[in-house]
Amino acid sequence: MHPGMKEDKTMPKGGSTCFKRSIIFLLLNISSFVVPVAGFAMKTCRISYDTAICDQTTLYAVPQDIPPTVKVIDLSVNRISKIQLLDFKNRTVLTELNLKRNIISQIDTGAFADLISLKTLNLNNNKLVHLGDDLFKGLSNLTELRIYGNQIKAVASTAFKSLTSLTILDICNNNLHNLTVVHSILQHLPNLQELVIRNIGLTEFHSWELTNSSLELSSLDLSQNLIADFRITADVFPKLTWLKIGGSKQRMKWDVRNKTFLSRVSTLDISALQMALHDMETLIESFNSSLISLRMNTMKYGLPALINTSCTIPTVSTLQLRSNKLWFVDSKLFHLCINVKEVDLKGNRIKVIQEEAFRSFQNLRILSLSHNKLLSVPAATRNLPALAELDLSSNAISTLECQDFANLVTLRQLSLQHNSISNLEECLFKNLIRLQVLELQNNTISKLNNAFIKYLPNLKLLRLNGNELTIIKHGEFKGLISLRNLSLHENKIKKLEKGSFIGLTNLTDLQLLSNNIEKNGLIKGCFNGLINLKRLDMRQNHIKYKKNVALRDPPFSELSNLETLAILSQHRRGKSQLPRNLLQGLKNLLVFNTRNSQLLSLHKDMFNYTPQLQTLDISSNDLEDLSPDLFSPIQSLKSLYISRTSLWSLDFLIHANLTKLEFLQARKNEYSVFSEEIMKSLPALIYVDLQGNSFTCDCSNAWFLKWAEKNEQTQVYDAYNFTCNYPPSLKGMKLLELDVRSCLVETDFICFISTTCAILLFMVVSFTYNFLRWQLAYAYYLFLALLFDSKHRNKQAPDQYDAFISYNSHDEPWVIRELLPKLEGEQGWRLCLHHRDFEPGKPIIENITEAIYGSRKTICVISRRYLESEWCSREIQVASFRLFDENKDVLILVFLEDISTSQLSPYYRIRKLLKRQTYLSWPQAWEHTELFWEKLRQALKTREDLYEDRFCLTVVDSP
Question: Per CATH, is 777-941 categorized as 3.20.20.70?
Answer without folding.
Answer: no
